[in-house]
Amino acid sequence: MAKENLNLTDCKSPELTPEQREAYIKAYGVQRLRRLEVPATDDGAAYYDVVAIVPDRATMSQYMKYIDINPKKAQEILIKQCVKTHLEEILADDALFLTTVSLVAELIPIRDGRVKKF
């Protein structure tokens, strides 16, 4: 989600220091790390720059265990396991929470496959 697409102008997140960046890379690997621009206001004038990780198989297993019986719990599992910054703000605000769930869901690694006749 690009800034120009959302007309975002005010980042509510402090810039990551080089030490913080290296710590995230060391903990999760650069291949799993992503930055999400989550709109903080309805008009899109401000946003949070959220550090997140791509969900792994264990996280997806827990998520899918609850998706049909308790969707709220399933979404919370996804957010709590994948979001590494601004977690308190996201959990406290419904709009931030649901937007972040949508963005993290886009990170789920699914490749396009083909089915062929035998």
Written description of the protein model:
By secondary structure, this protein is α+β, with helices and mostly antiparallel strands. The protein is built from 6 helices and 3 strands. Strands 1-3-2 form a 3-stranded mixed sheet. Strand 2 and strand 3 (46-53) form a beta hairpin. The protein is globular, with a radius of gyration of 16 Å. It starts with a helix and ends in an 11-residue tail after the last helix.
Supply database-style keywords.
118 residues; alpha+beta
Indicate the structural class. Answer: alpha+beta
Question: Main sheet: which strands, in order across?
Answer: 1-3-2
Q: Given the structure, what is the number of helices?
A: 6
Radius of gyration, rounded?
Answer: 16 Å
Q: What is the global morphology?
A: globular
Specify the helix fraction band: 40-55%
- Amino- and carboxy-terminal Cα gap: 40 Å
Quick structural gist:
The protein has helices spanning 3-6, 18-28, 57-66, 71-82, 87-92, 94-107; strands spanning 10-11, 33-39, 46-53. The protein is of the alpha+beta class and 118 residues long. Helix 3 (57-66) runs antiparallel to helix 4 (71-82) and helix 4 (71-82) crosses helix 6 (94-107).
Secondary structure topology:
Elements: H1 3-6, E1 10-11, H2 18-28, E2 33-39, E3 46-53, H3 57-66, H4 71-82, H5 87-92, H6 94-107
Helix pairs in contact: 3-4, 4-6
